[in-house]
Structures are given as structure tokens and as C-alpha cells.
TrEMBL record:
The keyword Oxidoreductase applies. GO terms for molecular function: oxidoreductase activity. One of its GO terms (cellular component) is cytosol. This is Uncharacterized protein. Keywords: Oxidoreductase. The keyword Cell membrane does not apply. Belongs to the short-chain dehydrogenases/reductases (SDR) family. It holds the Pfam family adh_short.
Length: 180
């Protein structure tokens, strides 16, 4: 059985790094993991965690979810290399803490462009092929902040609420095409 091709965003730290590491080090080599991040200068922790998997089951790629061009370029390269993407893990996210009135409009846009529009951009890029293949998984990493607002994190909470709404609305539609 061919290994599943997984693309994971936001792999320089946290959940993305851990997910990429776990899948890449799977003893049965069931996954070919494309661990992406917007700044490759931050790949050191992932490389250290996955030394033996590098170039075998783990491939680190630059991808900025807030850029249409970056998403298109990175995913086209993966499709060219692999022929398909079986699993998309939308994990990339940013958070800014503070009073809402102190948050600049550029900070608002940056937060939503990464946390919500990044999920939208990545999902839109893989859905057509997954639907035509009648197969695939899209996993959107959210937060409890997507269910319950918390003081000083209004922008983050709002962006994660949006991810929850998008995820809930897409799930029943995509299920009809074999995409989970």
C-alpha cells in the first residue's frame, strides 16, 4: 500500500511540529509528510526531532498560508512530485494578546489572513482534486477559543470561531464526495 501524502502547515513549533514528527517517524512508513512553514530559518527544531526521517518520509517546504502565490507554488510542487495530497492539516496560526482597541487594523488583517483565510486558501486548493479522487482528509486545527471567547484574545477567538463555522459547513458537503 502506498504511503499517504500529508501536508501540514505551521510546522516550525507546537502542534504542527509534533504532528509532522509523529507521522514522519511512523514505524510502518504509512505517511510521506510535507511539513510546511513560512520561515525556513525556523526548521531546526523539526529537523532535530526527525533526523532519520529527513528526505525519507519527511520533507520540509516553505509555505506562507497568507499568500495565494506561496500556497499555489508549494502545492503545485507537491502535486507534481506525489500526484496527490491525501491529508491536509491546516494548523498554521498566530495570536496577539491585548485590548481590542490597541490592536491595529494591520494586526487584525494579519490574524485573520493567517488563522482563517489561510485555512480557506489551503482548503480551496486541495478540495477539487480530493473531490475528483473521492478521497481525502482535511483537518482544521482550531482551539477552545473557537468555542468560548476569552479576555485579551478577541482577534484570535474571532478567527478561530470562523474556522469552526467553515469546518462545520464544509463537512457534510465534502462527505458526499468521500472527503472527510
Amino acid at each position: 500500500m502506498d504511503p499517504k501524502v500529508a501536508v501540514i502547515t505551521g510546522c516550525s513549533s507546537g502542534i504542527g511540529l509534533a504532528t509532522a514528527s509523529i507521522l514522519a517517524k511512523d514505524g510502518e512508513k504509512r505517511f510521506r509528510v510535507y511539513a510546511t512553514m513560512r520561515n525556513l530559518d525556523k526548521k531546526g527544531s523539526l529537523e532535530s526531532a526527525c533526523q532519520n526521517a529527513l528526505g525519507d518520509t519527511l520533507f520540509i517546504r516553505e509555505l506562507d498560508v497568507s499568500s495565494d502565490d506561496s500556497v499555489e507554488e508549494a502545492l503545485n510542487a507537491i502535486y507534481e512530485e506525489e500526484g496527490r495530497i491525501d491529508i491536509l492539516v491546516n494548523n498554521a496560526g498566530i495570536s496577539h494578546i491585548g485590548m481590542l482597541e490597541t490592536q491595529t487594523q494591520s494586526l487584525v488583517k494579519e490574524t485573520f489572513n493567517t488563522n482563517f483565510f489561510g485555512v480557506l486558501r489551503m482548503s480551496k486548493a486541495v478540495i477539487p482534486r480530493m473531490k475528483s479522487d473521492h478521497s481525502g482528509h482535511i483537518i482544521n486545527i482550531s482551539s477552545t477559543a473557537g468555542h468560548t471567547g476569552m479576555p485579551f484574545t478577541g482577534l484570535y477567538c474571532a478567527s478561530k470561531f470562523a474556522v469552526e463555522g467553515l469546518s462545520e459547513s464544509l463537512a457534510p458537503l465534502l462527505r458526499k464526495f468521500g472527503v472527510k
